[in-house]
Amino acid sequence: MSGGKMKKSKRNKLWKKKKRRCVAEMRAKEPERFEQADREADEWREKEMAKDMANRKVDEMKAIEKVKAKRERRRLEPEVRLIMLS
């Protein structure tokens, strides 16, 4: 082999070695990436559930307020009529 071909062969060997190492690292990191994605999905799900619960609570409070307002209106209605008739 001439000098140029030997250098090329050596360079190619080093490149292949580096490539194998890189691929091995990527494969080793893959489960970690899946776990990270799972954690992020769980966090998002928890946030959405908390938002839904808060919205439901607000809706319940609004419904209770409506009922209370109706009761108060019914209670005051006769008094208002008396005042208007007087």
Quick overview:
The protein has one helix at residues 3-85. The protein has 86 residues and is an all-alpha fold.
Give your account of this protein's structure.
The chain is mainly α and 86 residues long. It is 97% helix and 0% strand. It is built from 1 helix and no strands. It has one helix at residues 3-85. The longest helix has 83 residues, at 3-85. The mean pLDDT is 91.
Overview features:
86 residues, mainly alpha
Shape: rod-shaped
Runs in which pLDDT lies below 50 for 5 or more consecutive residues are none
Q: Main β-sheet: number of strands, strand sense, barrel status? A: none
Span between termini: 121 Å
Topology readout:
Layout: H1 3-85
